[in-house]
Specification:
By secondary structure, the chain is mainly beta. Helix content is 0%, strand content 59%. The chain starts with 10 loop residues before the first strand and ends in a 6-residue tail after the last strand. The mean pLDDT is 93.
Length: 137
């Protein structure tokens, strides 16, 4: 029996201390320029507060890896210019873009969260694949 890792999909789902982060990614051929070595991917994130306390997203930290194992990190305040506050049961959804120099790669990361009681923690963003269609490996 071989010990192979399951192939990463374009979907991810992680639950950290009551905060669920779900991501779906897809290739954006209309914004990509393969002849110039640029593939663009769109990803949509839904952050749901499944806990019992209000939380606020303070910052993001993405780790982006392309097919050549080149790693790029992106850090900054909030997401898409916002630092959403989520009461229990509330969700925040946004979409953004990620350019790569290769037709495949991965993303993973964390969101720095703040509870209403002042406690901070990091909500995990589980790894997900960035894959252009019709890619030959």
């Amino acid at each position: 029996m071989t010990d192979s890792k399951p192939e990463l999909t374009s979907l991810s789902d992680a639950l950290t201390q009551g905060v669920r982060v779900e991501v779906m990614s897809q290739h954006s051929p209309e914004n990509s320029h393969p002849e110039q070595g640029e593939w663009v991917f769109r990803y949509t994130v839904r952050i749901t507060n499944q806990g019992t306390e209000t939380v606020q997203l303070l910052s993001r930290h993405w780790i982006i890896t392309d097919a050549t194992e080149e790693v790029r990190e992106v850090k900054g305040p909030g997401v898409v210019g916002e630092q959403p506050v989520l009461a229990p049961g509330e969700a925040f959804k946004y979409s953004s873009w990620c350019p790569l120099k290769t037709p495949v790669g991965t993303m993973r990361g964390t969101y720095q969260m703040l509870r209403s009681n002042g406690e901070q923690f990091y909500a995990e963003v589980a790894p997900f694949a960035l894959k252009a269609r019709y890619t030959v490996h």
